[in-house]
Specification:
Length: 454
């Protein structure tokens, strides 16, 4: 019987989605799922929800709940992490409120920027504790690591435990591919692509429409034509004309289509994320630029508030879940587990250390590349060289990611300053003195969620 342990199972919605995917696979109808969380209330809610899902999918998994992590890991074939250290309050609020006092605006603040740096510093120590338990309790398990900031976390884990079997997973590659297919009025089943880079900043080297015998159609010319219309606010008939409401903000893809125009390739992570990875879109005293590109400042704060409300409703009444249709999503976890356990070979994009996979990125960074999954496990594929201007753009983020991990591992406070000083968004808006002052205030405010730095 295949066993999955979900650490951070109190992330009820994500746990629901992953388990729905798994129980949609016939071979996993009777699998074992161990739920682990430090929050017993959320843990109980997740367990009850999975019982409902199991019934709806005619599955009979063995589901257990644990607050003891090591007990939950015993006998695991796969481990999944979906934790958030510090939660919405106090940590996420601190990550936004203190920078805003310095005029530094953010959108998501979980991957890069000063918010991403602080999230790494409070998350990595916990992930290293989990890694230690995995290596001692279930060393042959494959760890499906979903926690952000992805690259910094994976660098720290792999540097500290080089023999661990872990893949960093995200939905941006396959999710963006589906979005682009819709933008072009195409079926995603007819699309093929090759994508590589770093998490949240990978680019599609090719994006094509498959042919039944003839040459595939390069879809980039159509995407570039669409980009001109989107950036210039021309009337469109495609999906890209629509605005997508998320809380009280408007999500729009003008940032990414502008990057396509300027760099020649499409990037994998959403505009609200990508806007804070570069110095060009979020500027002090330039509200005109923010409005032009429809950038949702403090978007993550709104998302958290909505998630909290949904959780409160779910805790009181699970009836709506009974009426929801359930189907397998495009998240990679179930495909990886199916590929390994049942030898159903599949290629996915995952985050691993750069062991000669991308030639013009540093060997000590984490890269997102195609990986072949089968009964032998996972095999990252060599990509070669990225277009040099794309590699140069990624290195501005890689610098910060490596320093985040270095700070967390060495406990040297100086590396926190170095990471903040080299962050593209922070450096383009604040002076050295302001960055030091802001960093000090954030370290103090996070208190016991951070280890002592010297």
């Amino acid at each position: 019987m295949i066993k999955l342990t979900i650490i951070g199972a109190g992330s009820t919605v994500f746990t629901k989605n992953i388990v729905t995917d798994l129980l949609s696979v016939e071979a996993f109808k009777n699998m074992e799922i161990a739920l682990q969380d430090i929050d017993s209330v959320r843990l109980k809610a997740s367990h009850e929800l999975l019982n409902v899902i199991s019934e709806k999918l005619n599955a009979s998994p063995k589901i257990t709940s644990h607050t003891d992590r090591r007990k939950s890991l015993a006998g695991s074939d796969f481990v999944q992490t979906t934790i958030q250290v510090g939660g919405y309050k106090p940590s996420t609020v601190i990550d936004f409120e203190i920078p805003s006092q310095y005029g530094l605006k953010q959108t998501i603040a979980d991957t890069l920027g000063i918010g991403g740096i602080m999230r790494a510093l409070r998350t990595i120590p916990v992930l290293l504790d989990i890694a230690k338990d995995v290596m001692e309790v279930c060393p042959n398990a494959i760890w499906l690591q979903y926690v952000n900031p992805m690259c910094a976390n994976m660098i720290a884990i792999n540097n500290s435990f080089p023999d661990i079997k872990t893949l960093g997973l995200c939905h941006s590659v396959q999710g963006t591919a589906e979005m682009l297919a819709k933008d072009l009025g195409e079926n995603i089943e007819d699309i093929s692509y090759l994508c590589a880079g770093i998490n949240h900043m990978a680019f599609y080297k090719t994006f094509e429409k498959k042919s039944n015998g003839g040459a595939s159609e390069d879809l980039y010319p159509r995407l570039k034509n669409l980009a001109d219309k989107i950036v210039n606010d021309e009337k469109l008939s495609s999906r890209s004309e629509e605005v997508t409401p998320y809380s009280n903000k408007i999500l729009h893809e003008k940032v990414r289509y502008e990057i396509l125009r300027r760099f020649g390739y499409f990037v994998t992570e959403s505009s609200e994320h990508f806007a804070e990875y570069v110095p060009w879109f979020i500027k002090q005293n330039r509200q005109d630029v923010i409005e032009k590109y429809k950038i949702p400042i403090e978007e993550y704060i709104d998302r958290c508030k909505i998630s909290i409300k949904l959780w409160e409703k779910l805790k009181k009444d699970m009836t709506p879940i009974h009426n929801q249709p359930l189907k397998r999503s495009n998240e990679y976890a179930s495909f990886i587990m199916d590929g390994v356990a049942n030898n159903k070979e599949v290629t996915i994009n995952a985050n691993v250390m750069n062991n000669d996979y991308i030639d013009n990125l540093p060997s000590n960074c984490c890269v997102e590349v195609p990986c072949i999954i089968n009964s032998d496990g996972y095999a990252p594929q060599k990509f070669g060289r990225l277009p040099e201007h794309l590699a140069a753009l990624m290195r501005t983020n890689v610098n910060v990611q490596i320093l985040m991990a270095e700070a967390a591992i060495t406990k040297k406070r100086e590396h926190i300053y170095h990471a903040a000083l080299l962050d593209p968004l922070t450096a383009s808006n604040l002076t050295i003195d302001e960055i030091y002052s802001m960093t000090d205030k954030m370290i103090e405010a996070h208190g016991n969620y951070l280890p002592q730095y010297h």
